[in-house]
Amino acid sequence: MSRALIFGVGGFVGRYLTQELQAHGYTVSGSDLLESCSLPGNAEYYKANILDAEEVRSLVGQLSPDVIVDLAAISSVGASWNIPQMTMAVNVYGSLNVIEAARQLSPMPKILFIGSSEEYEASDEPMNEEQSLNANNPYGISKMAQERFAELYRIKYGMQIYCVRPFNHTGIGQKDTFVLPSFCKQAAEIEKSGQAGVIRVGNLAARRDFSDVRDVVRAYRMILEQGDCSRIYNVGSGKAYSLQELLEYIISLSNQDIQIEVDPERFRPIDTPVICCDAGRIREELGWQPEYSIFDTVRGLYESYLSTL
Questions:
Q1: Are 179 and 159 in the same domain?
Q2: Contact of 159 with 111, CB cutoff 8 Å
Q3: Which of 93, 82, 70 is nearest to 142 (CA)?
Q4: Which of 7, 38, 239, 287 could disulfide-link to 72, CB 3.0 to 4.6 Å?
Q5: In CATH, what number is assigned to the domain containing residue 220?
Q6: In Å, how far are 104, 142, 184 from 173, measured between CA atoms?
């Protein structure tokens, strides 16, 4: 049975990845900054700061995992503009701590780093893995650097470091600082109030390729389980919807009269008009296919807020 260690397990994706790996026979341990963290199944939790090289080295040495997944990240483009220094520290320095800790083990574990569609140069067409990398925000730049270090250590030390470039993904549990949870929470609050209300938004013209987090973590596992760690895979649905279209669908789920109000503070300094995935490589080579529609996903998000607000 393979042993997996997930850094950043306390974040949105951590619980889903833990469940995905456990369902396929992995023994899973997780780490984060939290004092404690309730994880699915029998997964064990260990507190560690990914920016503390000694803590990372000690934990990796103690658990001696077969697989390490680094989910620890400043993962919001908007947040990365506000804290660019911390974004680079967590996303690059933290990943180097993971690599160096793994390099001390024999045999060295596989590592999976989570990149982003934000690494790519802006394009109106679906982006494949050969698209030029030219990020236009601190988050994307940090992921480009992380990926370059992974390549360097593969070449220099023969390490099995996998990199994936997921496009936008969402699901129940994602913070409402992200766009679709924000829309769903606002709509659910208005619905619960029983009165008309206003949803505050940013740039609704932006078109994005959204996937369900459950499809994305399945892709992560499939990538780790194939042999060529130098092969980088996009993960996305291949369909880009405008935020206007998705918001209108969310509003249609409510029985209340909901108006839309543009909030200038919700605009990013640079907002790429279209981000759409060409996932042909992972579909053809690994047989991955999305199982969930983004409309089903946002309905689940909306209903989750209705039941918990």
A1: no
A2: yes
A3: 93
A4: 7
A5: 3.40.50.720
A6: 35, 25, 12
Angle between the 213-224 and 12-23 helix axes, to the nearest 10 degrees?
Answer: 50
Could you tell me which residues come within 8 angstroms of residue 299 by beta carbon, excluding any fewer than 6 positions away? Answer: 253
Dihedral over alpha carbons 76, 80, 86, 87 (to 10 degrees) = 60
Range of the domain at 16: 3-169+210-235
Nearest to 77 by CA among 168, 184, 146: 168
Tokens of 247: 């918001």
pLDDT tens, residue by residue, 54-93? 999 999 999 999 999 999 999 888 899 999 999 999 999 9
Select from 212, 204, 201, 199 the least CA-distant residue to 253: 199
d(CA 73, CA 278): 24
Least Cα distance to 168 among 304, 37, 290, 263 occurs for 290
Q: How many domains does the chain fold into?
A: 2
pLDDT tens, position by position, 160-194: 999 999 999 999 999 998 999 999 999 999 999 99
Residue 120 tokens read as 């790519």
Query: In this structure, what token pair is assigned to residue 88?
Result: 């680079």
Residues of the chain with pLDDT under 50: none
92 and 180 inside one domain? no
